[in-house]
Amino acid sequence: MSYLQIFALLGAFLIPFILLWLICYGLEAYALYTLAKNNGQEDKAILAFIPYINRGLYAYFAGDQVMFGTPVPTIASAAIMGLLPLLGGFIGGIVNYICIVVIIIVSFYNYKAVYSKMSSVSDSTLFGVLAAVISLCRVIFIFLHRNDILVEDGEIVE
Description:
Blueprint: H1 3-38, H2 53-62, E1 65-67, E2 70-72, H3 74-91, H4 93-116, H5 124-133, H6 135-144, E3 151-152, E4 155-156
Antiparallel strand pairs: 1-2, 3-4
Helix pairs in contact: 1-6, 2-3, 2-4, 3-4, 4-5, 5-6
């Protein structure tokens, strides 16, 4: 088997996964865009289509939070979700694994906060865990709830 045949075989194997990734990315970007537009954030809605920056949109919807007893401002959790994957990928090694763990923890808190603001969600902790660990669940869930209005303590968030 020549190198060209191996390369063609790998390409044929990867095409369905690349198509699935593109479809999921498009659905999530559209859902975040619609969610931002419906919640009065027209100026920030376009950020949903920019890779890595759209993770910061989740943090923006979540707002300021308390993680492990420490108050974390929105900008810090947005930076962690947006920039830490790039930093961990460039440095590599054990730092990459530490970055992955930190990203999963911060993602859980952000997704849980966003899902708790959606009025039609019954258990935000379960959906937060699923969204932080299994990204396909996040895409499906945010797409199904793209028309929700975020509510915080009975008041509409704008």
